[in-house]
Every structure is written in C-alpha cells, then in structure tokens.
C-alpha cells in the first residue's frame, strides 16, 4: 500500500483507523517483527520475506523504545532473496539473541497473546483455558518474579499432595500391620498348644517299646513251654514208628530192582517200534508212486478225448463252410454302389472341411472379442476403483451427502431430466496438478452439491430424499443447486487466452477440467470459470503490471489467488492475495467420456459374442449331423466290401482247417 511510513504513538490508548487494504495490519506486523518476533506469532505467513512489499528486494523496520537514561533504537533489514535479516541496535550491528535480551529486559512479550494480540490470533486467544489466561496475564502485567513464584507455588502444592498421599499410605499400612499382629497372636496361641501336645506324644512314644517288650516276653515264655511239650511228643512217636520204618526200607530196595528191569524192556520195545516205522514209510512211498501213475493215465485219456472232439468240430466247421460256399451265388457286381458311396463321402469331407474352417474362424474371432472384453473390464475396473476412492472420500467427509447419493442412484426413475451427482464426483481434472486451482475457486459447499436441470426435479429430491433420512433420525445436510435455464457452458471468455500468454497465463479454469453439461453451465454462470485465467510464477513476478494492464478481477498464479477490487469511494484499485490450499477432493479423476465409451464397447462385444455363440452352435450341430452321415456311409461301404470278400475268405479258411 505504501513504500514508507512512520508512526509516533502517543500516551495512553492509540487507535489506527482506515479502510480495508490501507495498511493497518502492516503496522502490527512491523511491531512484532521489529521486536524479534517470529512470523508464526502473527499467523499470516511463515517467511519474513513475504512481509516485504511486492516488487521490492528488501524492507526496513526501525523501532525506538523508551529506556532510562537512553532510549534504544532497534533496526531490522529483511532480505527477500535469501529470506534473511540483519539486526542493529542504535545503528550498530548486533544479533537476534541480543535483541531478544533487550526486549525481555523491558518485559516485551510479542509471543504473549495477553500483551500482543494480532487479529489472526483472536481465535487462538479465545481458545485459551483459564489457567493459560492466568499465566499469560502474570507474564504480561507483573514482574518476572510473579510467574516464577506462581510456578514454585504450584510445585510446592504438588509436593504437598504427594506428602499427603504418602502419609495416608503409611497410615493405612500401619493399620494393616496392627490387624496382622492381632491375627498372629491367635496363631502363636495355637502354636504353643500344639507344642504341648507334641511333647505329650513324644513321651508316650518313648514308653511304647517297654509295653510292647513286656507283651512279647510273655508270649515268648508261653511258646517256649509249648515247644518243650512238642519235643516230648515227637520222641514218643519215633519210638513207636521204628518197626514200620524197617519195612519201608525193604520195599524201596525191591522197587529199585523192578525199575531196572522195566527200563531194559522199554529200550527193546523202542528199537522194534523204530524198525516198524521205517517199513511203514516205505510202504506209503510206494502207494504215492502208484497214485501218480494213475493220475498221469487219466490225463492222457482226457487229452485223447479232447483231440478227437476237436477233430469232430473241425470236420463239422469244414462241412458248414462247404455248404455255405455251395449255397453262395456268384459275387454280383458291387462296384457302382461302392463308387456312389465314395462320391457321397468325398462331398461330405469337403463340407466338413468348410465347416471346420468356419468354426476355427469363429473361435478365433470369439477369443479376440473375449480378450478385448477382458481388457475393457480391466480398464473399467481401474476407473471404478478411482471412482470408489472419490466416493469413500465423500463418505468420510460428507456422510449426509453420501447417503443422499445412495438414495438418488436407487430412484433415478423419479426424475424427468438429468440429475448430476455431487460436483466433486462429476468434475474430472485433465491434469491432477491443476486441481488446487479449481478447489480454491469453487466453494466446498458447491463441490458436494447435486446439480439439477429442472427445478421440479430438485423439489422432488428435496421433498422425498431428505424426509426419508429424517425419518431415520438423521439430521441430513445436503446441498442442491439448479443449472441456469439458458446454458452458459459455451460462454466465451472476455479475451482469447493467446492475448494473456505474455503475462504467463496458460489457460482459463474451464479448460482445466471436464464436467457434464449442467455442471459446467452452473460453474460458468456462478463462478465464471470460463473467464478466470491461470498463470505461472512469471505472472506472480509481474503481478502489479498484470493488474494494471489486464483489468482482470480474479487471477491465479502458481501458488496464489489474487482478487482485484475497485474502491467505491476512492475509485482506487487494490488487490488481496491468498495462498492456495492443497487439493483434497479432485486429485483422483475419472474420464467419463472414456468410461461411457468403454461401457458401450463392452455392450457391443457382449452382443457380438452372443451372435458368435449362436453361429457356433449351428455349425457344431451341422458338423455332428455330417459325422453321423459319414459313419453311416462308411458302414455301408464296409458291408459291400465284406460281401465281396466273403467267398475268398471261406475258401481260405477251409484250406487252413484241412491243414
């Protein structure tokens, strides 16, 4: 707005008043940047070079601060080329850190929203919590010790809470330990009682062996007496048994002599038995040889009978063949019939060859059509994937619009004229790099709007689609617009783009994308996309000349949008520029013309394949019929040939059988 400006603030409240674009914010920016503030504190740009007036290579800030005894003059030079700054204090070169120390010594805090509040940071200031506001206020109005003391106070309070919690934990622990001691007292009493019982058991265990010994000793005495009595009885019995013992000894000696005789007789019997067994084995061997000879004789008799039966059968077969040969008439002339069948077979062969050739051609054509269909389906699949991505983006950002879109697709038969889906789905960029220009030019509300050719159709949509969703307890938020009655899609720009090439412009917005006719007509009418040029970095470098010479109202450069206005009061021209946002909705584009053409090609190929299948079925049926006829003719030819060869075969067979 201006090349140089000096401001002399007065005491108390200072108010700067001016129309939009007169440079009020430039003074605020200068205060922040001149007092070692960062561009992020202002919230307008991230580089200091962007605060220098366009067309200039550097800018100068000079701020004089009151300080006793001598004031401080801080100077900052901003260089646009390499985005650097040079600092001076009282005309002497210095560093950024020294400037920050000087401003801090004067309690100047440009990063404190309670002390320095640019208009772009008002929203951030409103979002500050009460605690953050208190801290910012302490830093702003009080000496540095206030905030330091406040921080120490918070730390002491935190430590106090920790000590209180620790004391509470210790108290709980003490109470638990007391309860545990009470429980342990009962355990100790039970332990002492158990100890007494164990001592008693030990004493009784020591007494047990004496009692057991006494019982066993008494039993031993009783058994000893019984043993002595038994010995006396045994002695008496032996004296009584002596005569019987002598008789037993004599019987044993007689038994031994008899046993020796029995052994000798058994050996003799064994030898005789062995000799008998040898004789019996020899006899069995002879019987076996006799049986084998009888078996061989029976086989010889069976072979002789079989040989005589074969001779009789052969004689009978020769007699039958002689009778057939005698009864067979002279072989008639079968050649004409054979020639006729050969001619028919030849014609059938030619016809079958033609059909095979036709089937091969049709099969090849069908395979080509199927490959082309697969290629089209694959391409449509890729296009549908892109469209699905756009629909998922719509669903994630504007769920209500997506719900209305699903309703529209199911109820298109209710509308008389064309209804276009949300613009972000219908607009297809020719180059995704240009999507940012279109998205920055068209509002987000219109990008998710449905476009209708007929107002009546739009009323039907609003009356039926939205209440259905409302009945589902959804507060539906859907935008719908109506294309102008008179089409604006073919509107011409105010001047050919060739006239603007020298300023770096390469196209109008309308030429950067494709869209259905109603959508394009609405955008030309509402946003004048046919008359908004898009330029390059060259355009930005000469923007003042472009604005003065072209009189354009909206301009896009590589990274910025310029809006040019004329003051109603002063008739002066001024412009505002904003950085372009990155594209979010239009970066994935689908060529709708290509999609429609592919769908038409797919339908044509399906019809062609259906026709080819019908022709192939007809040819295969004809081929099957010809194969049956060919088999019949060959069978007839075979029968004629067999009739001619039968006599020769019979004579040959009779000779073979005689041999």
TrEMBL record:
Cell location: Chromosome; Nucleus
GO aspect biological process, one term: double-strand break repair via homologous recombination
Coiled-coil portions: 146-289, 331-379
First and last residue of the signal peptide: none
Region Disordered: start-end pairs: 637-659
Domain of life: Eukaryota
Record has Coiled coil as a keyword: yes
SUPFAM superfamilies: P-loop containing nucleoside triphosphate hydrolases (SSF52540)
Keywords: ATP-binding, Chromosome, Coiled coil, Nucleotide-binding, Nucleus
InterPro entries to which the protein is assigned, alphabetical: P-loop_NTPase
GO CC, any one term: nucleus
GO molecular function: ATP binding; single-stranded DNA binding
Family named by the database record: Belongs to the SMC family. SMC5 subfamily.
Full protein name: Structural maintenance of chromosomes protein 5
Naturally occurring in which organism (per UniProt): Buceros rhinoceros silvestris
């Amino acid at each position: 707005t201006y090349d140089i400006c000096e401001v002399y603030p007065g005491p108390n409240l200072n108010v700067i008043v001016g129309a939009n674009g007169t440079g009020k914010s430039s003074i605020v920016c200068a205060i922040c940047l001149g007092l070692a503030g960062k561009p992020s504190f202002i919230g307008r740009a991230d580089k200091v070079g962007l605060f220098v007036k366009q067309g200039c290579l550097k800018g100068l800030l000079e701020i004089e601060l009151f300080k006793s005894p001598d004031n401080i003059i801080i100077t900052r030079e901003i260089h646009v080329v390499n985005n650097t700054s040079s600092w001076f204090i009282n005309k002497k070169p210095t560093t950024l850190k020294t400037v920050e120390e000087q401003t801090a010594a004067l309690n100047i805090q440009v990063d404190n929203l309670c002390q320095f509040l640019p208009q772009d940071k008002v929203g951030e200031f409103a979002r500050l919590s009460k605690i953050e506001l208190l801290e910012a206020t302490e830093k702003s109005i009080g000496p540095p010790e206030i905030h330091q003391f406040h921080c120490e106070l918070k730390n002491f309070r935190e430590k106090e809470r920790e000590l209180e919690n620790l004391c509470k934990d210790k108290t709980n622990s003490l109470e638990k330990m007391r309860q545990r001691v009470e429980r342990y007292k009962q355990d100790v009493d039970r332990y002492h009682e158990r100890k007494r019982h164990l001592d008693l058991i030990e004493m009784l265990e020591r007494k047990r062996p004496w009692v057991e010994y006494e019982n066993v000793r008494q039993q031993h005495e009783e058994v000893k007496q019984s043993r002595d009595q038994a010995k006396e009885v045994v002695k008496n019995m032996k004296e009584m048994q002596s005569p019987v013992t002598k008789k037993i000894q004599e019987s044993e000696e007689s038994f031994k002599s008899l046993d020796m005789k029995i052994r000798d007789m058994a050996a003799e019997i064994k030898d005789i038995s062995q000799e008998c067994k040898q004789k019996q084995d020899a006899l069995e061997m002879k019987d076996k040889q006799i049986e084998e000879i009888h078996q061989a004789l029976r086989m010889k008799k069976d072979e002789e009978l079989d040989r005589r039966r074969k001779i009789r059968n052969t004689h009978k077969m020769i007699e039958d063949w002689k009778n057939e040969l005698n009864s067979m008439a002279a072989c008639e002339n079968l050649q004409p019939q054979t020639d006729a069948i050969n001619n028919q077979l030849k014609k059938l062969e030619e016809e079958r060859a033609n059909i095979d050739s036709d089937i091969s051609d049709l099969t090849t054509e069908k395979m080509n059509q199927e490959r082309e269909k697969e290629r089209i389906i694959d391409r449509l699949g890729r296009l549908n994937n892109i469209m699905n991505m756009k629909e998922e983006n719509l669903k994630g950002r504007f769920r209500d619009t997506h719900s209305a879109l699903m309703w529209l697709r199911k109820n298109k038969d209710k509308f008389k004229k064309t209804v276009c889906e949300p613009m972000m789905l219908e607009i297809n960029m020719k180059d995704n790099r240009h999507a940012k220009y279109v998205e920055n030019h068209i509002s987000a509300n219109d990008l998710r709007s449905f476009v209708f050719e007929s107002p009546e159709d739009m009323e039907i949509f609003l009356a039926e689609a939205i209440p259905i969703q409302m009945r589902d307890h959804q507060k539906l938020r859907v935008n719908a617009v109506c294309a102008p009655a008179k089409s604006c899609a073919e509107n011409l720009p105010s001047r050919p783009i060739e006239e603007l090439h020298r300023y770096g412009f390469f196209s109008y917005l309308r030429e950067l994308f494709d869209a259905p006719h109603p959508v394009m007509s609405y955008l030309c009418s509402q946003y004048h996309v046919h008359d908004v040029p898009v330029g390059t970095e060259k355009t930005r470098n000469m923007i003042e000349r472009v604005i003065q010479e072209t009189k354009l109202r909206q301009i896009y450069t590589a990274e910025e949008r310029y809006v040019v206005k004329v003051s109603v009061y002063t008739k002066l021209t001024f412009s505002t520029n904003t950085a372009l946002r990155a594209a979010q909705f239009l970066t994935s584009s689908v060529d709708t013309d290509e999609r429609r053409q592919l769908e038409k090609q797919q339908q044509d190929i399906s019809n062609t394949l259906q026709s080819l299948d019908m022709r192939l079925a007809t040819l295969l049926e004809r081929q099957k019929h010809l194969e049956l006829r060919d088999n019949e003719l060959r069978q007839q030819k075979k029968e004629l040939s067999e009739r001619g060869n039968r006599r020769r075969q019979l004579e040959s067979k009779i000779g073979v059988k005689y041999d």
